TrEMBL record:
Species of provenance: Jiella flava
SUPFAM superfamilies, per database record: Phosphoglycerate mutase-like
PROSITE patterns in the record: PG_MUTASE
CDD domains associated with the record: HP_PGM_like
Name by which UniProt lists this protein: 2,3-bisphosphoglycerate-dependent phosphoglycerate mutase
């Protein structure tokens, strides 16, 4: 019974590079992002991971990251489930704006609150709390059962959808999750106990 869950944030996107709020917009990976995704796949292959299922969002940067990882793993035929519940946090009116321009328009403090507070959404968008409200039920009903059946499951998603999962898995408070960063292309490996608690967590940096 392996009960392994691996979380990977997509590689750098074109809008990450341009310092733009991305949210549900759909830019592709940069060349660096492609290499980050391939590197994540190589790290997982070096640890001899063989996945039983994979999940990703409906956004192409996460889907392509997953495809590139599976290519490195030699598991391109793995069943993949795509669902909008795993999409990045919706930044609403901020989507597509340069972060520096947003600070000039609304002020440094207000933009910081929108970006980093737990439950204050930007205009027309989602807070991290809102994001978790769609991510966590989907995880419980669709992803977790495959892990608890003894599977090894790969999830390629986004900084904030994955922060929502990490918050719950690690038992972090709203104050603690605010400071938690998920790096692009770095696999986070969880091994779960029979009661769904975390037995072990590893971050594959090297």
């Amino acid at each position: 019974m392996s009960r392994i869950l691996v979380l990977v944030r997509h590689g750098q996107s074109e809008w990450n590079l341009k310092n733009l709020f991305t949210g549900w917009k759909d830019p592709d990976l940069t060349d660096k992002g492609v290499e980050e995704a391939k590197s994540a796949g190589r790290k997982l292959k070096a640890e001899a991971f063989e996945f039983d299922a994979a999940f990703t969002s409906e956004l192409s940067r996460a889907q392509r990251t997953l495809d590139l990882m599976l290519g490195e793993l030699g598991q391109s035929d793995l069943p993949i489930t795509r669902h909008l519940a795993l999409n990045e946090r919706d930044y609403g009116d901020l989507s597509g704006l340069n972060k520096d321009d947003a600070r000039e328009k609304w002020g440094e403090d207000q933009v910081h609150i929108w970006r980093r507070s737990y439950d204050t959404p930007p205009p027309g968008g989602e807070s991290l709390k809102d994001t978790g409200a769609r991510v966590w039920p989907y995880f419980i009903h669709d992803i977790l059962p495959k892990v608890m059946a003894g599977g090894t499951v790969l999830v390629a998603a986004h900084g904030n959808s994955l922060r929502s999962l990490v918050m719950a898995l690690d038992g972090l408070s709203p104050e603690e999750i605010v400071g938690e960063e998920i790096a692009t292309g770095i696999p986070i490996v969880y091994r779960l106990n029979a009661d769904t608690t975390v037995a072990e967590k590893r971050v594959l940096q090297g």
